[in-house]
Amino acid sequence: MKTADAHLSRPFWMGVLARASSSEVAALLGPLPPYEMIKRPETGTVMVEGRAGGGGRRFNVGEATMTRCVVRLPDGTMGFSYALGRDRKKAEQAAVIDALLQGNGEEKGALLRHIDRLANDQKERRELASRKAAATKVNFFTLVRGDG
Amino acid sequence: MYVAVKGGEAAILATHDLVAEERRGDVSVPELSVAQIREQMQLAVARVMNEGSLYDEDLSALALKQAQGDMIEAAFLMRAYRTTLPRFGSSVPLDTSNMAIRRRISATYKDLPGGQVLGPTYDYTHRLFDFALMASGEAPEAQTSADRLDAAMPRVPDILGDEGLMEAELPPEGDPRPFDLTRDPIEFPADRDVRLQTLARGDEGFLLGLAYSVQRGFGGNHPFAGEIRLGEVAVEFVPEELGFAVDLGDITLTECQMVNQFQGSKDQPPQFTRGYGLSFGHAERKAMSMAILDRSLKAREFGEAADYPAQQEEFVLYHADNVEASGFVEHLKLPHYVDFQGELELLRKIRREQEERAATMKEAAE
């Protein structure tokens, strides 16, 4: 079996899951394994902070909705999920996936490959947006007038 | 004086039904979906998120639908909903130098690292109607370049800062938690964090008008748009139970860095001064207005005479919030029967006394 890339660390897969759509996360898992709900999916807000000038004094820009969830597998592994938005179903599934990815169960390899694929899709979407922006980049040229 | 008066319940219920029918409009026209508003009215969605001070594109679209497109009513719905939610904490401060850029322009440098990227903008359109939009057309397709944008896109004030020509922008000692006006009342003089939060959720029209007044001479600044950038930035959050930063996903932001004329002192040779604007979504006019006002409100720090409205923080900060402002202006619609009766009585009394006095004087004269 292909070993997982070194970049597949926990903060990495949590970020990939947070960015993934509800249907993408649902597609990662077949039937959910047994687990216990520790903290039901809950929607609240996070106060988004910025910095004056980009790097100076912190200030509050405004809040954003976010949803979190905590589950526990029968072997005691805790799974967490945190993501912007109000998707409770995704929050629960992502927490289960987070728990499974920390263990060494048979599904881990396949899950990691799925995470890698999702990460690639997300990267490709960013690249495409960047390439569309790049098409609007100004190429200046100078007109030479007179005999110079 | 307030006197409880009962009645009007049936009328209120009927008006709810009536406004629902009006909102739907002609039923032979297909109903708007929230997803359509979110995808096709993105700039309106951004404005409601800013003034509602809550980033959630779906809720903002719903608010616009429910409010029949009334931006301030929609912002009010966002504010009201927010109060029902628990707050899990604050994010790690956003790093806008790490933005996935879709637009980035500078009016101060033609050639800057990363280049001038126009992105999606109406700036170069002719403002002529596109009647083709009246018919449903095919999905338009943008051009794509073979290469992505440069990875390094330095923020313009940082370029000037490297030369020492720009006012430094550093966190105060200890990098303190910012003031939060949703938790504590504003006090004056207000610090920069208080001002920036108030401006970020302030009414775009109010900020725009004041920024315009600064440019027209009621504020004495001469701003250059050092940089405007639009794109996606990751929001990071450190849950107590994990103890490491978790990436919550991306939000779209517009950032504006205004470069203003010089200030110096005994110890500090003259430098350009800064104004900063940051908005949710694509909201350039808002971010630019905010940046101009951020600078004009630094009058006290720079020892400038605060002669104009845009330099007077109490004036700007107390009147920028459109939900509060419309609450106070529109409360005049509510019954003031008893207050008004009082005024009416008073007016009658004054006139009666005046007539009596006139009559007495007339008698005395005769």
Q: Would you kindly provide a written description of the structure presented here, covering whatever features stand out?
A:
The complex is a heterodimer of chains A (148) and B (366). In chain A, β1 and β2 form a beta hairpin. Chain A has helices spanning 10-19, 22-28, 88-102, 108-134, and strands at 36-51, 58-72, 78-84. By secondary structure, chain A is α+β, with helices and mostly antiparallel strands. In chain A, 44% of the residues are buried. The mean pLDDT of chain A is 91. A three-stranded antiparallel β-sheet of chain A has the order 1-2-3. Chain A has one domain (10-134). Chain B folds into three domains: 9-82, no CATH class; 96-120 and 150-169 and 179-321, no CATH class; 335-365. The model of chain B has no long low-confidence stretch (mean pLDDT 94). Chain B has 366 residues and is of the alpha+beta class. The longest helix of chain B is centred in the C-terminal third of the chain and has 29 residues, at 337-365. A four-stranded antiparallel β-sheet of chain B has the order 3-4-5-6. Chains A and B meet through α1, β1, β2, β3 and α4 of A and β1, β2, β3, α7 and β4 of B. β2 of chain A pairs parallel with β1 of chain B.
SSE blueprint:
The complex is a heterodimer of chains A (148) and B (366).
Chain A: H1 10-19, H2 22-28, E1 36-51, E2 58-72, E3 78-84, H3 88-102, H4 108-134
Antiparallel strand pairs in A: 1-2, 2-3
Chain B: H1 9-24, H2 34-40, H3 42-52, E1 54-55, H4 57-66, H5 71-82, E2 87-90, E3 100-105, H6 156-162, H7 192-200, H8 204-215, E4 224-237, E5 246-263, E6 271-280, H9 284-296, H10 313-319, H11 322-330, H12 337-365
Antiparallel strand pairs in B: 3-4, 4-5, 5-6
Helix pairs in contact in B: 2-4, 3-4, 3-5, 4-5, 7-9, 8-9
